[in-house]
Design brief:
CATH topology of the largest domain: MetI-like fold
Function: Part of the binding-protein-dependent transport system for phosphate; probably responsible for the translocation of the substrate across the membrane.
Keywords: Cell membrane, Membrane, Phosphate transport, Transmembrane, Transmembrane helix, Transport
GO biological process, one term: phosphate ion transport
Helix content: over 70%
Number of domains: 2
Distance between the termini: 55 Å
Strand content: under 5%
CATH superfamily of the largest domain: MetI-like
Largest sheet: 2 strands, antiparallel
CATH class of the largest domain: Mainly Alpha
Number of helices: 13
Structural class: mainly alpha
Pfam family, one: BPD_transp_1
CATH architecture of the largest domain: Orthogonal Bundle
Number of strands: 2
Order of helices and strands: HHHHEEHHHHHHHHH
Radius of gyration: 25 Å
Shape: flat
Membrane topology: Multi-pass membrane protein
Length: 305
């Protein structure tokens, strides 16, 4: 009897396993949270001294068009203007999104609505394969194909915003298209059947029902692609020309925040003014990533309502 009571009142083996599982999960979440917070604190501590210790003004930093840390202009202000990099990063990112968004939606509709068998067994595995290709491969393709094509078509060196936007579009298309396919697959079938039963044809149903219901998921994919494009460094650096100027055309060499950061970080000494300026670029990229994540979260919450 006493052994029966002991077995009933004691902790079972299954309960012990569940308790250990909960503990491991909690530790993993805490480790992840500490890591994220540490990254934010570390990069903020490295990036903000440019304004507080080195006394660089915000207007001078964000609206200046010359980047040469360590040198000063005639008025004695340091040449740390990031406007050319902001213009370059924004231009290549938006150009890539303009090219990718309609292609991703058309690909998603073909895979899910027009030809599900070919889409499921051929196109979707190809998209998943393309997602895993390293960015340096896209950069080599851009350097070998896109840049010569730009040079022969528009003249000049071939390096520039347009070449960078095309390479970025190739990179993020599989990601945005895959997320678009997932969003379209989540549209309830009874909504499509109801639309068809009311007399709408297949394309009217896709436009007025399927795309509208899947819009939050599609927008999430687009913003995810935007975040990846804005933070991409290597592939863009290989084809954009890396000229720190404000471009006046799409075929003129330019540069991005990530290109300047990756080129300069290994050539500066920790704690110097030049190094602080590069850490401030990293802080801007981190802040932009946070903004993109908040936008994705907001869109996802709106889609759940």
């Amino acid at each position: 009897m006493s052994s029966l009571n002991q077995s009933l009142l004691g902790t079972s083996k299954k309960a012990s396993v569940e308790k250990r599982g909960h503990t491991i999960s909690l530790l993993a979440v805490l480790l992840l949270a500490v890591t994220v917070v540490s990254i934010f604190v570390f990069i903020s501590a490295k990036g903000l001294p440019l304004f507080f210790n080195d006394k660089v003004q915000l207007s001078q930093f964000f609206f200046g068009d010359q980047w040469s840390p360590g040198k000063t202009n005639e008025q004695g202000f340091s040449l740390v203007g990031v406007l050319p990099m902001l213009v370059g990063s924004t231009a290549v990112t938006l150009l890539a999104l303009v090219m990718v968004t309609p292609l991703a939606i058309a690909t998603g509709l073909f895979i899910t609505e027009l030809s599900p068998k070919i889409g499921k067994y051929i196109l979707q595995p190809l998209l998943e394969l393309l997602v895993g290709i390293p960015s340096v491969v896209y950069g080599f393709v851009g350097l070998s194909v896109v840049v010569p094509f730009m040079r022969n078509t528009f003249g000049g060196s071939g390096f520039g915003i347009l070449a960078g936007g095309i390479v970025l579009a190739m990179m993020i298309l599989p990601t945005v298209a895959s997320m678009t396919v997932d969003a379209l697959n989540r549209v309830p079938k009874h909504l499509k059947h109801s639309s068809l039963a009311l007399g709408a044809n297949e394309f009217q149903t896709m436009y007025r029902v399927t795309l509208r219901v899947a819009k939050p998921g599609i927008l999430t994919g687009v913003v995810f692609g935007l975040a990846r494009a804005f933070g991409e460094a290597l592939a863009v650096q290989m084809v954009i020309g890396n000229a720190i100027v404000i471009p006046d055309s799409l075929v003129m060499p330019a540069t991005t925040l990530t290109s300047v950061l990756t080129q300069g970080m290994g050539n500066t000494i920790m704690g110097t003014f030049e190094n602080d300026a590069l850490w401030t670029l990293a802080f801007i990229l981190l802040f932009m990533s946070l903004v993109f994540n908040l936008i994705i979260k907001r869109i996802s919450q709106k889609g759940q309502v």
